[in-house]
Write a structure and sequence with these properties.
Length: about 325
């Protein structure tokens, strides 16, 4: 398998991206990794010879975090993200991943890679952390700010297939993010989506409140990109605040410092449990190729985890399986 990596996208690019690719190349010698970006900038972060399964593909432009997505993708033809998408579309790569501009990656998926037949809107689907370490697949968490009920129903079907085929969960439970568990709760969007999801070929368990997500009250959580992104950032911010408070508390006296030294392994485990980046990147489900979005602030470990996730999806033949099953599973509107 061959995975194209946008080496220039992300807050810590290219340094952490290159470092993560090097770790992944050494861990999985059967996988060829293609670092797409400015060769000189990439080589500046490589000491010694490249692993035999790691190559550099030149792309001299970059899509910045504040670029307008559609304009950037259309005008910056030699941007690392766009070139990686082109490699995927042309069959020169089996998957691509990027930590760059989320809107631009969504646009690259639609305009360069192409939308999957039968899907109106692709969705970002990361795995959110849960207390049992299994996680909840949540979609959409930021690809589309405005969604229609039929989009949410399609997210539910795609998420259910992904959870079963890639994660091996039989008959995954699908929940709809809402302000209450009763069927009549929520906005006009969630009420209409609820009715569609009841008729969809999935194991729909009804509405789920955000406070229950970390208890893994469902295996697939469906929401619009606006609400989903707020949920994601709220969880991320809460986890960061809790860890900061614990750190400050353990620094308050000699006794607490000694306690911290004893509890350090457990605290590291807690930190990892609350960090959704540990699960790897988020696939952009609904495009005609495997596109994985890494967190914008991804470090080398996160990049390696994203490569691992891409490998699992390729081994499970996610995209062809998803395309075939979507054709056979229609939502009655």
């Amino acid at each position: 398998m061959r995975i194209a990596i946008d080496a220039m996208g992300g807050d810590h690019a290219p340094g952490q991206i290159v470092k993560g690719a090097l770790i992944a190349a050494r861990e999985w010698p059967d996988t060829e990794l293609v670092l797409v970006g400015n060769p000189e900038a990439i080589k500046a972060h490589i000491e010694g010879a490249l692993p035999p399964n790691l190559i550099i593909h030149p792309a001299l432009d970059v899509i910045e975090a504040d670029d307008e997505p559609v304009r950037a993708v259309r005008r910056k033809k030699d941007a690392s993200m766009v070139v990686a998408g082109r490699l995927l579309r042309e069959g020169q790569a089996d998957a691509m991943l990027s930590a760059g501009n989320t809107g631009a990656l969504m646009t690259t998926g639609l305009l360069v890679v192409g939308r999957m037949e039968g899907i109106e809107r692709p969705a970002l689907a990361p795995v959110l952390p849960t207390l049992d370490n299994i996680g909840v697949l949540a979609l959409d968490l930021g690809a589309n700010m405005d969604a229609k009920p039929e989009h949410l129903a399609q997210y539910a079907i795609m998420g259910s297939i992904y959870r079963e085929k890639v994660h091996g969960i039989q008959r995954p439970r699908v929940g709809l993010l809402n302000v209450g568990t009763e069927p009549g709760k929520g906005s006009e969007l969630t009420k209409a989506a609820f009715e569609l999801m009841e008729r969809a070929p999935i194991h729909f368990i009804g509405n789920v409140e955000s406070r229950d997500v970390m208890q893994r009250s469902c295996d697939v959580l469906v929401c619009d990109g606006f609400s989903g992104n707020i949920l994601l950032k709220a969880m991320e911010g809460t986890a960061g605040a809790v860890m900061k408070e614990l750190k400050d508390a353990f620094k308050s006296s000699l006794l607490t410092k000694l306690a911290a030294a004893i509890m350090m392994p457990g605290l590291k485990g807690l930190k990892n449990k609350m960090d959704y980046a540990q699960y790897g990147g988020a696939p952009l489900l609904g495009v005609n190729g495997l596109v994985v979005k890494c967190h914008g602030s991804s470090d080398a470990e996160s990049v390696k985890n994203a490569v691992r996730q891409a490998r699992l999806a390729l081994q499970a033949r996610l995209i062809p399986t998803l395309a075939a099953e979507i054709k056979g599973k229609e939502v009655s509107l």
